[in-house]
Amino acid sequence: MRVLHTSDWHLGRTLYGRKRYEEFEAFLAWLAETIQQQGIDTLLVAGDVFDTSAPSNRAQQLYYRFLCQVAASSCRHVVIIAGNHDSPSFLNAPRELLKALDVHVIGSRCEDPRDEILVLADAQGTPALIVCAVPYLRDRDIRVAEAGESVEDKERKLIAGIRTHYATVAALAEGKREELGVDIPIVAMGHLFTAGGQTLDGDGVRELYVGSLAHVTAGIFPTSLDYLALGHLHVPQRVSGSDTIRYSGSPLPMGFGEAKQQKSVCRVTFDRDAGDSRAAAVQLIDVPVFQKLERVTGDWDGIARCLRELSASGSADESAIWLEVIYAGEAVIGDLRERLEAAISGTRMEILRIKNNRIIDRVLGQIHAEETLDDLNVDDVFERCLAAHEVPEDQRPELLAAYRETVSSLTEDDVQAQ
């Protein structure tokens, strides 16, 4: 039995306003081809299929076309669980129809835990794998709130709820294996945050519960599991050094902080002919780069030099490189954007974000010791900018009015987009 573990597709996600459908389409085409080439029997998608609970028509189209393509391939089963970004009801809506394609969807915790236990058969119809398809467990699924409870009480209840749920489904899976009378592997899925898990700046990974509660340890998972396929963290990684408890990571970089990260999916093989038919052999399969991202940081001379090197390294048939530029020089450059646009003119580079740390430092430097940025509203920050740049007092009211009009316009656009 060959299993492919992936997660955190985030179909429909944008990057600083830029739509990424071509990247998602290229990834799904590559994934379908990889499934065929690798002879994959079962595909596991460990949550966050979509980036929002109300995905666009284009994102839905990519999802359903991919499922139809995989259903027509050598892959016999697809198991999908919801993540914290997904709408349980949206994912569950076509589940009965998708069952006809051997696509199993678990959008939320089932009232009967037995419904999260799937027995998957091989090409001969013989049971070959048991999957405990545990979706993202929401707070209300695993904890009863009580008046007056402390943060520690909430954390203890959350951890206990997660532990109990996994113990329950694992015990049911073991019972099902005994009932079948065949010694087949048990694989579990989950979408959660493990203690010590690695994240990166700007990767979009959210805390799942209040604050940083319920960063679970590997010790809460039953030892009867032969492999645990996790989602939520975007960096591919093992949990507590275990080869069989893994995050596959997101297949595309979710932000510029992941620009240099090698993305991958996990191929997990269970060999009946080996000495231990339940031993998992894990191999990472690298995901190609479908859109090149680069983060450029430094003073002006360093940034200009890096832009020249990037321009010289590209070939004519390559797609445009998306850039994030972080200016960290000492000198104040008022025309930074104009300089950057001139530097990339005629190249296949496009700047999606400019962060001027020098300006930020000057503004934040105006904040009193007892203040934080959260204590200031958008008008306060703009007024601090005016003061930091020593804009004459008589010019400030007109500039502030224009700024407020711009902010109001942006807010209205966001509401309409939603």
Automatic annotation (TrEMBL):
Domain Nuclease SbcCD subunit D C-terminal: 289-389
Signal peptide stretch: none
GO BP annotations, alphabetical order: DNA recombination; DNA replication
Any one GO molecular function term: endonuclease activity
SUPFAM superfamilies in alphabetical order: Metallo-dependent phosphatases (SSF56300)
Pfam family, one: Metallophos
Keywords on record: DNA recombination, DNA replication, Endonuclease, Exonuclease, Hydrolase, Nuclease
Domain Calcineurin-like phosphoesterase: 1-236
UniProt superkingdom: Bacteria
Family note: Belongs to the SbcD family.
Described function: SbcCD cleaves DNA hairpin structures. These structures can inhibit DNA replication and are intermediates in certain DNA recombination reactions. The complex acts as a 3'->5' double strand exonuclease that can open hairpins. It also has a 5' single-strand endonuclease activity.
Subunit structure: Heterodimer of SbcC and SbcD.
Protein name, entry field: Nuclease SbcCD subunit D
Lineage: Bacteria, Pseudomonadati, Pseudomonadota, Gammaproteobacteria, Chromatiales
Gene (name only): sbcD
